[in-house]
Write a structure and sequence with these properties.
Layout (H helix, E strand, L loop, with lengths): L4 H9 L2 E6 L25 H4 L2 H6 L1 H16 L5 H9 L5 E6 L5 H5 L5 E2 L2 E8 L25 E5 L10 H11 L2 E5 L11 H7 L3 E5 L12 E3 L3 H19 L1
Parallel strand pairs: 1-2, 1-6, 2-3, 6-7, 7-8
Antiparallel strand pairs: 4-5
The structure holds nicotinamide-adenine-dinucleotide.
Nicotinamide-adenine-dinucleotide (NAD) binds next to helix 9.
């Protein structure tokens, strides 16, 4: 895809770049997006109905089976060229903030430092009753119990209707207000408050770029909408930026 010169210019002169990723950023690693997860074993369930505190209260064993399936799938996956390109971007801009709605840890495995995990982490466990120390729990149990209080353990992800983890929301909001370029990558821009970050950036004068093969509610509000897969477009974008930086020096 030929990239607009003005977009590479904007990146080359940016002081602070914020990249927000969604599940599309991991699609080329074989990790299903929410929509794609409605296949096979789990086709009888609506994924957005499994990722709720109500679903956990009603059938915790079912929710643990779903998360164990997702853990195995992610463990077998590898970062794709899009993850690698974003890790490289850190070294090409003064300040880079990477906020991910993904819970799979693939950005970290690709080498991105200091990732803001907006929706938690698939491999974390926490006590459903409070902030207990969960070390030593028997994770093989159908519904693991908290070793400290005996309550139920749950995966350390943010479910629909729950608050964003301490610090993550503040860091993401502050970065959105400060960045010069905002990259919205592989997200349907339907899940709030993450979907509002691009508007914060835009209001503060940032150039907003969407990378997604499909249109989303964010498309018409973006300065650039690049209809492409993240694993193909991001390496091209980061290569163009590296070339521009070299020719500028
Ligand atoms: P979503 O499933 O709602 O949307 C995925 C978006 O990615 C779609 O707009 C789709 O067009 C786009 N897409 C698909 N393939 C792509 C590719 N190769 N390159 C670029 N874009 C591509 O996901 P969302 O917006 O992240 O929000 C829903 C929630 O899903 C988040 O809360 C997230 O925590 C959760 N989730 C995470 C994972 C993960 O950690 N990998 C997987 C499934 C769901």
């Amino acid at each position: 895809m030929s990239l607009p010169d003005a977009l590479v210019d904007a990146l080359a002169s940016a002081r602070h770049v914020l990249a927000l990723t969604g599940s599309g950023a991991s699609a080329e690693s074989g990790v299903p997006t929410f929509r794609e997860a409605q296949t096979g074993l789990w086709s009888q369930y609506e994924p957005t109905q499994l990722a709720t505190p109500e679903a956990f209260a009603q059938d915790p064993a079912l929710i643990w089976r779903w998360y164990r399936w997702r853990r195995e799938l992610v463990q077998a996956a590898e970062p794709n060229p899009g993850h690698v390109a974003l890790a490289r971007l850190h070294s090409l801009v003064d300040t880079m903030t990477l906020v991910t709605q993904n819970v799979d840890g693939l950005h970290q495995r690709a080498g991105s430092p200091d990732v803001v995990e907006y929706h938690g982490n698939l491999f974390a466990n926490r006590c459903h009753e409070g902030s207990c120390d969960t070390n030593g729990a028997d994770l093989e149990a159908e519904v693991p119990a908290c070793p400290q209080c005996g309550g139920r353990l749950r995966p350390g992800v943010v479910w629909f209707g729950e608050a964003i983890p301490d610090g993550a929301r503040e860091r993401a909001d502050a970065a959105a207000a400060d960045c010069d370029v905002f990259l919205s990558i592989g997200t349907s821009s339907l899940v709030w408050p993450a979907a509002g970050l691009a508007d914060i950036a835009s209001t503060h004068g940032a150039v907003v770029v969407e990378i997604n093969p499909d249109a989303t509610p964010q498309t018409s509000r973006s300065h650039y909408s690049l209809r492409a897969r993240a694993g193909e477009l991001l390496p091209e974008l980061v290569d163009s930026l590296a070339r521009r930086k070299r020719s500028d020096t």
